[in-house]
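Feature request, filed as a ticket because there's no other form

It would be nice if the structure record came with a short human-readable summary line next to the tokens. Right now we just get the raw output. Example of a typical job, pasted below so the devs can see what we mean:
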Amino acid sequence: MPGAFCKFKKIIMLFCLALFAALEIHAQILPQEELLRQRIDGLKIGSSLLAPPSNLAVVPRVDPQEQKPSEQQEKAPDIDTGRLLEDVDFVRKLAQGIHPNAHTNKKLRDAAVEGMLRALDPHSYLLRPEAFKRLLSRQESSYVGVGMLVLKPEPEEPILIQASFPGGPAFRAGIKGGDRIVSVNGQDVFSMSLDEAVSFIRGEPGSTVKLGIISKGSDPRAPPKKKEVELLRARVESPSIRSAMLEEEIGYIHLIGFEINSSPQFAKALADLRSQGMKSLVIDLRDNPGGYLDSVVEISGNFLKKDQLIVSEKFRSVDSPIFEDPRFEKSIGPFQILNWIVQEREYHAKLDGQYQDLKIAVLINARSASASEVLAGALQDHGRDSGRVVLVGSRSFGKGSVQTHFENIPEPGYAVYMTVAKYYLPSGRWVQKDENGKGGLTPDIEVKVAPDDDFVLMQQLISKFYQEDQASTPVKDEVLDRALEHLRGQLAQAK
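Raw output as currently delivered:
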């Protein structure tokens, strides 16, 4: 099995590193408490997810090059499961027998599980009970927090603030898009996933949280020059979808994420715009990091013919021994086991969409990811040849994997969140960004926007959800302008 030894060695190595991190035996390895990921308004629970990118580090401040196996290790034979368990248990005995502080089996077990999941990919991780409980609130239209959209673009990076919600605690404190969070309540976030940070930032109404903020333009790797901002948590309404007629025959829908109720809201917005004379449509997916698979499939179907392919998922195996483990069925719910005994699953438009006649411009940027890339890519694949659909903006993020959660693993209250499949667009494209940064969707009409302006634009768009007054000198939205120019030309040709 080529490379298998490398994988197991990496897992064992990560087990050991995770255990040592939990024991705090190295001055450069910071404490790691309840890890896990995502944007500030939470995680989608209960369905397969084309979720926002969630990149986290193997171990804080460790050079990834140092983790790569040697050529000799790559060619070495695999080890069996018994050896794997023996090696991990020996490290546990070392930790409990030699380290000056006492540590429980449970603490070391959690650290070892985290290490194993991190070895898989940046989107797989362990959710401890408190973090899992808070992230379940994703199904609500509001939450208790500080009111921000956030993203963690790469491992070992600070958390990027995309925008703050007008009227929310972060907005009132002057926190804005492009700022970065480097600590939460004194804990370094470089080694955290986004979900972990979200679970720490959220809390009870009226309680406080301290954020270490570095304003955009500062170097987060330079000696700390951050400001501590103490915020009072409050209930925050999460924006989801906004629609308007921009011109006499051009409608506009801005979708923040693919939530549980996004599909019916999107359908209502389409109907309202059609009643106002819409003949062309702008779909704004900029800074949309993803969401529910079912939601993006239903939304895509509005513009496609019945049975047209939207996306396909490809799984690893149909005969894995895990399917025979009773804990697996319990972790995914009763009667769900048959959904896993497949190698490929396709999602098609269920009905003839009512809006196949529309000319569409889809706006994307480098923070449009996952489910956003499915909608934009499916429309591009089916509409590019006819000229009915164009993508406008900059190359998208490039996340081509699907995640789901397994409840009560390793014990009740916990959950393992793990990549389970790769997804492919109708043309067979896989949008996953490679190690050289290549991937994502290429726009048909590329529009370059300065990074600073990009964040200001996002804040302007978010403010419109709250009907807030715009800045006295707003940034010109060149991406939207190019999309409108294109659609105007198409409308003129049709007359």
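Something like this underneath would help us a lot:
The chain has a mean pLDDT of 83.
The first helix runs from residue 4 to 23.
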